Amino acid sequence: MTVISPRRAGKPPLVVTDRMARRAFRADVESDKFTDTIIAALDHGMIKYPDVEGFAELAVIRRDKTGRVLDSWTIGGEKLRIMQGKAPADGTR
User: Fold this and answer.
1) What's the half-sphere exposure (Cβ side, CA atoms, 13 Å) at 59?
2) Is 15 helix (H, G, I), strand (E, B) or coil?
3) Are 69 and 84 in contact (CB under 8 A)?
């Protein structure tokens, strides 16, 4: 997975953490106010991580700095089971 995020001149780059798992791509992108989680499970649609589960080929989750989920989106509007709090640091599933 490639994450492209335009930034204004002089702004520091966003922190991108690769949490790829078996047959799923995941990136957690940290800005100064939010963490956006982008998950792609394109060949099977099954998302299974300790903090999020469901069936969607593509999902985006926005959390505030405390880990509280502010919003989520999936292709097709599928519901996800999202646990509140920070994502696990090791990317396990």
Assistant:
1) 28
2) strand
3) yes
| Residue linked to tokens 């090791």 | 90
Residue 52 to residue 84: CA distance in whole angstroms = 9
Of 4-13, 23-32, 79-88, which gets the smallest average pLDDT? 79-88
The values of phi and psi at residue 66, to 5°, are -85, -10
What is the distance between the alpha carbons of residues 77 and 31, in angstroms, rounded to a whole number?
25
DSSP state of 24: B
Q: What are phi and psi of 75, to 5 degrees?
A: -65, 130
The 10s digit of each residue's pLDDT in 43-86 is: 888 999 999 999 999 999 999 999 999 999 999 899 999 987 66
Q: Supply 60's token pair.
A: 């985006």
Amino acid residing at 57 = E
Q: 0.90 cut: is pTM over it?
A: no
